[in-house]
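Comment thread on ticket #2218

A.B. wrote:
> Attaching the input chain for the structure job we discussed in standup.
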Amino acid sequence: MIGFAGLSHLGIFSSTAAAARGHNIIGYDPDSVLVDQLNEGKFSVLEPGLPELLAEHRSSIRFSSDPERLRDCPLIVFSLDVATDSANRSDLTPLRELIRRVAAYVSSDCVLVILSQVPPGFTRLLKREIWSDAKVRIFYQVETLIFGSAVERALNPERFIVGCEDPGAPLPQPFNEYLSSFGCPILRMRYESAELAKIAINMFLIASVSVTNTLAELCEYIGAEWSEISPALRLDKRIGPHAYLAPGLGIAGGNLERDLITIQELAFRNGTDAAVPAACMTNSSYRKDWVFRILQREVLSKSPDPIIGLLGLTYKPNTAATKNSPALDLIDSLQGIHVKTYDPQADVPSFRSERVSRVNSALEACRNAAAVVITTPWDEFSSLELARVSELMAGRILIDPFGIIDPKKSAEMQFRHFRLGSPE
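C.D. wrote:
> Ran it. Output below, let me know if you need it in another format.
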């Protein structure tokens, strides 16, 4: 029996994936309302494949708000997502409270795993603070879930990175059996190395994003086409076929920004150089304004009171999350402008401005718009009927950062089609 404490996005997927690998699961969360919803098959997160996966393995999972149910678990995984504040700094208070709440129900021979993302030093300090005199064994495991593809990532991880007090010692049997059931490499290292490994992965991703965005912008001005260049880079063995080479509107979602902030703070405390993360933050902020710069040049400077149609509010498709969404940043920049928004799943209850509204379809957002902006590349937007869009719009400006609309079709309809990394 494996216990998962904390049933946010991370906990739901990690526990369900463990059940799919043949383990019996107790999922614990102090929020009884959340537990009742999960037992009824209702989810607070949007992820493709989640309802089907849980339904298939429902008999192996029991959700409970009673921590007593964890007492007989030889392995307990703390799987609460660590939220970030408005400055993208981690708020570890809920995780600490959860750990202390569960501590009273942990047996002396239990194995504890911190799956939540924490800064370097957290796990070792936790052991000293709570279990310094106990025989409880504590490990840190790097989580690698990605919003929008969490099912695939949870079921088929590339590798497990495990932080240990003694990396040379064998893993305890219940933990080793759990990890081995996924059939991927297991990398053991000291606590601090594993905690920093998660940040290191994201830093390399951020570097790819920043370089891609920098070069894609040059393409827009010199007549080059980034979509022609990226295949050449993928064939370079030093970069590879899975490199992140799709230009975007900066870094969004909160988790990557959190790691940039963490590295900057660690560098400041230890007197090391932080120019690289600072440059990535600057590049991201600049890139998020790409849409606004085009709107300012092509629409706002020429029309006294235009309507802007905004398609997509989430920071990426296949999620309801809007944390650090480029769309919301754009809305803030368009103060006083009439904006009609549509998103199939975004959890945005209201807007601060009366001039910003939500409508019930993509076509309704296009009605009377001087420009239409696709800020989230949902699949349904790629199949927009351009002839109908053209009839509804007042203008001919189509801003499609991710290039999900066929440029040949947009040219046939005489749209001015703006894409990241492409000359208009």
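A.B. wrote:
> Thanks. Noting for the ticket: The chain has a mean pLDDT of 91.
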